Amino acid sequence: MTDDPIALREAIRAEALALGFAACGFARADATPESAARLDEWLESGAHGSMEWMEARKTHRGRPQGLWPESRSLIMLGMSYAPPEDPLRLAGEAGIGRISVYAQGADYHDIVKKALKALARWMIDRAGGELKVFVDTAPVMEKPLSAAAGLGWQGKHSNLVSRDHGSWLFLGAIMTSLDLPPDDAHDDRCGSCNACQAACPTDAFPRPYVVDARRCISYLTIEHQGPIPEEFREPIGNRIYGCDDCLAVCPWNKFAEDAAANRAFAARAELAAPELGDLLALDDAAFRAVFAGSPIKRIGRDRMIRNALIAAGNSGLAGLLPPVRALLDDPAAVVRGAAVWALARLDPSAFAAEHACRATGEGDVTVVNEWNVAVAKAAVAR
């Protein structure tokens, strides 16, 4: 144990890097007093969509000491997952489902939390005090706090950007009762660049630094539980889980080293470029088997099949007609509705035949609406 807080801070930083973190910074627990007001404004606009949990714990989320009053210092940590290949390379592959880079390997929650706990144990042995560790699932605003701790800055896409690691950092936090000297906050280095704003397929940025989740493909394919609003289906293209576009075009990524050496985040072959036909055939048991150990597992089979059906409808591939038609009989209404839309896009004649024998027997109002909207569009097209 040392009485020198600066020496202790640097020893913690060195240990964090030894444990696999790419960045480590320190901030006071009250470092971002403006965050609560910004969060309130965002929530009041409704931009969080159906993520009620963000509003339910906004008092805790707005400031760290609202979550744990005893906290004095924050240790903000970043673990790089910079991809070895261009995340946008599969944009034109109609039969392939695109999965966001962060979800192609093992669940980052488990990996980052394991390293955080190891660092926490080291800190207790070295300096004592009380502490708590957090990875994403707790009401902690990691991005502004990481900026306050000097890891980077919140870019115009609202995610953290690092001079050394681009937009590819998983973030974690340790709150501690120890008083540790803070690092300097990081300046905004976006300048006049608006590449991330221009890259968004669904115009999810009402203004720089603010994202409207209701228009964001990551939200729509992961958090949103019902039918995907029709205006966003075609722009989704072949994205079936998340979206990397705003991150992937960030110019600061050119300084990020390939993190493939960190095998924990290496893409699994079956998730790097999954065939839509294979995904559409998954029942619940097969879904759980394919996505075991993946963060994707938490959205459940029905949402994944919904997403794959949207991609199938955008594909123009007649070979996907058999699995799409089979899903018209799926037990889940959200799957049946997406299958209606996909079938209408892939083969209007097959759609007309199925409508003639199925639509009157459908008991779910959202699926009936899918049939009616598709029929109306077909009539206009004629």
Summarize it.
By secondary structure, the chain is an alpha+beta fold.
Present the secondary structure layout.
Blueprint: H1 5-18, E1 23-28, H2 35-44, H3 52-56, H4 58-62, H5 64-67, E2 73-80, E3 98-99, H6 108-127, E4 131-134, H7 142-148, E5 153-154, E6 160-161, E7 169-176, H8 195-199, H9 217-223, H10 230-236, E8 239-241, H11 245-248, H12 269-272, H13 276-280, H14 284-290, H15 300-315, H16 321-326, H17 333-346, H18 348-358, H19 365-381
Parallel strand pairs: 3-8
Antiparallel strand pairs: 1-2, 2-7, 4-7, 5-6
What level of helicity do the residues show? 40-55%
Alpha-beta content class: alpha+beta
The total count of strands amounts to 8
Unreliable spans are none
Strand count, sense and closure of the main sheet? Answer: 4 strands, antiparallel
Strand portion: 5-15%
Shape: elongated
Number of H- or I-type helical stretches: 19
CA radius of gyration is: 23 Å
Main sheet: strand order: 1-2-7-4
**Overall mean pLDDT score?**
92
Task: Give the N-terminus to C-terminus distance in angstroms.
Answer: 79 Å
Strand/helix succession: HEHHHHEEHEHEEEHHHEHHHHHHHHH
Describe the structure.
It is a single chain. This protein has 382 residues and is α+β, with helices and mostly antiparallel strands. Among the domains are: 5-82 and 105-176, no CATH class; 283-382. Helices cover 44% and strands 9% of the residues. It has 19 helices and eight strands. The protein has helices spanning 5-18, 35-44, 52-56, 58-62, 64-67, 108-127, 142-148, 195-199, 217-223, 230-236, 245-248, 269-272, 276-280, 284-290, 300-315, 321-326, 333-346, 348-358, 365-381, and strands at residues 23-28, 73-80, 98-99, 131-134, 153-154, 160-161, 169-176, 239-241. The strands form three sheets. Strands 1-2-7-4 form a four-stranded antiparallel sheet, sandwiched between helices. A two-stranded parallel sheet has the order 3-8. A hairpin with a 5-residue loop joins strand 5 and strand 6. Helix 15 (300-315) packs parallel to helix 17, helix 17 (333-346) crosses helix 18 and helix 17 (333-346) packs parallel to helix 19.
